[in-house]
Please model this.
Amino acid sequence: MAKYNNLITITLVIFLGCLIQSALYFAESRETPTKAVLEFSKAYFQLDPSMSERLCEERKTVDDVDVVTEYLQTAAKEASQRGFGLSYIKNKLYNIGIFVISQDNDQAEIRLVGDRKPWLRSLFTGETYKVDETINVIKEDGKWKVCGDKLFSLP
Model:
């Protein structure tokens, strides 16, 4: 009888673990303004072109110039002038804090604070830089997008 009790207990623990895991997965995949800011910021500092997926339409081009492409080309040129490849100037975010300043159904103001550090130097001790930005987010086509006049150093 004790054999069956252990089997039932193990089965229940596994079932509850699967249930909790699936609930957390669906909660994680929910579209929120803080998720948009986090995804954009990580892509921005990693010099990942996917950041354009989180930019609102009005910010994607300024004076008929693709903002993300221009930013990446400028970063590549800066790295080249210093004698390095683009990966040398990529940064990684640490100690990230995201705070909702205000939010309604289709717009929000989010504050992102944390530290950024060049990812090649993140393996060793190195200088960190503070990040403290207030970012406007709007809902566009059912998805939260980063918008506003100033996004880190994007034009």
